[in-house]
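Hi support team,

I submitted a single chain yesterday and got back a structure, but I'm not sure I'm reading the token output correctly. Could someone confirm the output below corresponds to the sequence I sent? I've pasted both exactly as they appear in my results page.

Thanks,
R.
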Amino acid sequence: MSDKIKKILLKKDKDKIVSLTAYSKSFAKILDKHCDIILVGDSMANVLYGLNSTDEITLTNIIEHGSSVRKGVKNSLLVIDMPKGSYNNPKQAKKNAQYIKKKTNCDAVKIESNSKNFNIIRELVKSKIPVMGHIGFTPQFKKKFKVEGNNKNEANKLINEAKLIENAGAFAIVLECIEPIAAQSITETLKIPTIGIGSSSYCDGQILVTDDLLGLSGFYPKFIKKYAKLDVIIDKAVKKYSSEVKKKSFPSKKNFLYEKRTK
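Hi R., thanks for writing in. Yes, this is the structure output for that exact sequence:
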């Protein structure tokens, strides 16, 4: 077990874990100053590629962005999502996870639970590939969004699912859109940290899609807090640039790379 993962485990019930997504070196360098975990998420499907579903993200996509992010990460734990279809069985999962790790030098991979792929987590951990689990709303397997754990039966199923993921060897687990009391019960039951997204402050940490909190994605459900309005700032900057180009005030002489030659 790496020192970075040990550090995450030691935060359980003590310090809140800060997590965000990144898809490029430039963003990763900034996030690395403030985050415990940086995730190269398959959310790039919506954020970067304008796709309706994360299903279309490929190993190539994940590896290209993961390699870029790795260049900007020094301190944070770098976790990379395994795309849908890349871990249908233990043999395939091991092959693809090893390939992701080799190409990106990531610290761990994340796998969404379909309530029965615990053996895949176990196989990866056995092969010394750290795994972060993911329960609740899992976009790779559930297309209809809803808050989960709203009744005792649902909550107990989620608790059991989380325990099986922990027993399989995962070092942490993402709880997505789980009812607060259920999220609290899961967090209190597990020995490994829980990272919430839309699952209340009872979790051991939080994760958001960076483009959402910066006001760039246009996606703002209730669980998102917009910490900046970069869309407005960028719009103003581009508008000013456009105006100066049209007025011929940019580029000015101070923007020239070379001084004009004299005869």
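A quick pointer for reading it: The radius of gyration is 21 Å. Let us know if anything else looks off.

Best,
Support desk
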